[in-house]
Design a protein that fits this description.
Blueprint lengths: L9 H16 L3 H8 L7 H11 L5 H12 L7 E5 L4 E3 L2 E11 L3 E8 L20 H6 L5 H24 E5 L4 E10 L6 E9 L9 E5 L4 E6 L4 E4 L3 E2 L22 E12 L2 E10 L4 E8 L4 E2 L5 E3 L3 E6 L4 E9 L5 H6 L6 E8 L8 E7 L3 E8 L4
Antiparallel strand pairs: 1-3, 1-9, 2-3, 3-4, 4-7, 5-6, 5-8, 6-7, 8-9, 10-21, 11-21, 12-13, 13-14, 14-19, 15-16, 17-18, 17-20, 18-19, 20-21
Helix pairs in contact: 1-2, 1-3
């Protein structure tokens, strides 16, 4: 067998292992010999091991680790963050800045926007529509959910008006007097809900030497972000799964815990590949009822089933603090904002950026927390010294 390609595809290798297993199960002599060279059993694990040995690796795990290494950057991109800002009143609603995460190419402010009081914005007046080519024919075809479509368009226009109001009424400066521009990078929210998450690109990128970053509203209100302290991290080695955890389980007592100040820490460490996935931990922040972990995964975070449909997260993520508290993490939202170069390529460079939400709220007295990322076959832990919240 030829050597491993420069940028191997783990999914393709998995298909090769399944095809080898099917051939051996059907009695193909060559396939049977390949499996018997490593195991007396006709099983998927034997097919994976045979494939790994043929590529020159001692185990399937070693092969997956090499695949992740070749598809990942040589070094994790350096990142830094600013947090701790209070809510800011704007004409578009109340902006709650959660965290500003910056890197060499781009900086993004993550937060939420909530309509305040009865400040519902009025949808723009309907424009007079001019018939386009083919419109007459389209009128002859019954349209399904036309009322729902019009409602969706109206809500989209209201949301766009809210974002224009936010950007037009908010300025951002730092302690050295530098001014920054804001533009919409993304966001999400339920239809008709008064609040939504927002991703605002900050341009240019604030340097990590900045002592503070301040958002200013037209009415003189301000919200100041401060540099995030760095959490000391100790990374364990990948190993086999010890105790299988239930997917998306909720531990007893996993309910929001009130009280305590907002808390934010930079992490900035890359974990060894687990089940072929490399993970970089960026930032941890606590919120009134939960806490978030921002991370980047390569080549992907989600598993896909038949017909390309989303199946489940590949990892069960748990946390345990030094006071005996336990936490369960689950997917919260996608946080990837493409750079202009990536937008032109319509590609995120083979990475996924997301936030995991953990319940309950981080114990304000906790000084350390152990995170465990458990895949189908492997798991890895990282110990974080976070100090006091």
């Amino acid at each position: 067998m030829s050597g491993l390609p420069e940028r191997p595809d783990l999914d393709q290798l998995r298909r090769q292992a399944r095809e080898l297993l099917r051939a051996a199960a059907d009695g193909d002599p060559r396939a049977v010999d390949r499996l018997r060279a490593v195991s007396p059993h006709v099983a998927l694990s034997a097919a994976q091991l045979a494939l790994a040995r043929e590529y020159g690796f001692q185990s399937w795990t070693a092969l997956k680790t090499e695949v992740a290494r070749r598809r990942s950057p040589a070094e994790p991109a350096e990142r830094w963050s600013f947090g701790g800002a209070a809510a800011l009143q704007t004409p578009a609603g109340v902006l709650v800045p959660e965290i500003l995460i910056a890197g060499a190419e781009q900086a993004v402010l993550y937060g939420s926007l909530t309509l305040s009081g009865n400040g519902q914005l009025t949808a723009p007046a309907a424009r007079r529509r001019v018939a386009a080519p083919g419109a007459l024919l389209a009128r002859l075809v019954p349209r399904r959910n036309s009322a729902a479509t019009r409602q969706y368009i109206a809500e989209h226009e209201v949301a766009s008006a809210r974002m224009r109001g936010l950007l037009g009424s908010t300025t951002i400066v730092d302690d050295r007097g530098a001014q920054y521009a804001l533009r919409v990078g993304g966001g999400s929210g339920k239809r008709g809900a008064p609040d939504s998450s927002v991703h605002l690109v900050v341009d240019p990128v604030p340097g990590r030497e900045a002592e503070w970053i301040e958002l200013r509203g037209q009415d003189g209100t301000t919200a100041r972000l401060l540099p995030s302290p760095r959490a000391a991290a100790r990374i364990g080695q990948p190993g086999p799964v010890r105790v299988a955890a239930a997917r998306r389980a909720v531990m007893p007592g996993a309910v929001p815990r009130a009280g305590g100040p907002q808390f934010y820490r930079d992490i900035g460490v890359a974990l060894s590949a687990v089940d072929g996935v490399s993970i970089r931990l960026d930032t941890l922040i606590s919120l009134p009822g939960s806490w978030l972990l921002y991370l980047c995964a390569r080549p992907q975070w989600w598993n896909y089933g038949p017909a390309g449909r989303l199946a489940e997260d590949p990892f069960s993520v748990r946390g345990e603090d030094d006071r005996g508290g336990s936490y369960v993490g689950s997917y919260a939202r996608n946080t990837l904002v493409l750079t202009p170069e990536e937008s032109a390529r319509e590609s995120g460079g083979g990475r996924v950026e997301l936030a995991l939400e953990f319940l309950p709220r981080l114990d304000p007295l906790a000084r350390a927390i152990k995170l465990a990322f458990q895949g189908a076959d492997e798991e890895i832990t990282v110990d974080l010294e976070i100090g006091t919240t």
